[in-house]
Specification:
It is built from one helix and five strands.
Length: about 80
């Protein structure tokens, strides 16, 4: 297994499709809703999705007797592959 080293083995993610910023933001919001629904129904703590140049990561955070979802959205992120 060849694990990439940051930053030399990583490539910038560049949107290849002609999607407007408004359409992309709508797609992100729909995906976040779907991810939280999935996590709630399956009682999972982490979920991530990547499409075009977007990476969405959601973590369920437990503090005291409460929990909440923390959502991270990255556009034009860098990524590496392990094969």
């Amino acid at each position: 297994m060849n694990i990439p080293k940051y930053p030399m083995d990583f490539n910038d993610s560049i949107r290849s499709k002609k999607t407007s910023e408004e359409d992309l933001n709508h797609k992100i919001n729909v995906e976040v809703e779907n991810m939280i629904r999935f996590m709630s129904e399956n009682n999972t703590n982490n979920h991530s999705v990547a499409f075009e140049d977007v990476l969405i990561i959601i973590d369920r955070i437990y503090e005291d007797d409460d929990s909440y979802f923390e959502i991270s959205v990255a556009k034009q992120h860098s990524r590496g592959l392990v094969r």
